[in-house]
Design brief:
Elements lengths: L17 H22 L4 H28 L5 H24 L2 H22 L7
Helix pairs in contact: 1-2, 1-4, 2-3, 3-4
GO molecular function: metal ion binding
Pfam families: Hemerythrin (PF01814)
Family: Belongs to the hemerythrin family.
């Protein structure tokens, strides 16, 4: 169904903040789990539940990350909020397209989610990483 390359967590993604690293790892696992469910043709009910779980955990993580950035008065806080809002919009788009039965577009959004998360960690989140 898709040639997306699933990524596994590795230490190069670490920002040095244990809760945020845990969140990032969990989000990556959830995206991979969702992709697998779509690829093997899981029921719409199962996929809808996975999307709901991903959306809820994403919102929790964004609150954790934004709270941390506010606590350390990091200058990227507003940019992070914008990035997080864009990601949340894409999850909503993904959910909407799946509800409409548009699997092709849904898989394109799946590619975006996977790529966005890793790129966001490596480019944006590394700006506050503890070395």
């Amino acid at each position: 169904m898709s040639n997306i390359v699933l990524k596994s967590w590795n230490s190069s993604y670490s920002v040095g903040v244990s809760q945020l690293d845990f969140d990032h790892q969990k989000l990556l696992e959830m995206i991979n789990q969702l992709h697998k469910a779509m690829s093997i043709g899981q029921s719409k009910v199962m996929i809808a539940q996975l999307i709901s779980n991903l959306k809820n955990y994403t919102l929790t993580h964004f609150k954790n990350e934004e709270s941390y950035l506010a606590q350390i008065n990091h200058p990227t806080l507003n940019d992070q909020k914008k990035q997080h809002a864009a990601f949340t919009d894409k999850i909503n788009e993904f959910e909407s397209e799946l509800e409409k039965g548009n699997i092709t577009l849904a898989m394109q959004v799946m590619h975006f989610l996977n790529d966005w998360l890793l790129q966001h960690i490596m480019e944006r989140d590394m700006q506050y990483a503890k070395n």
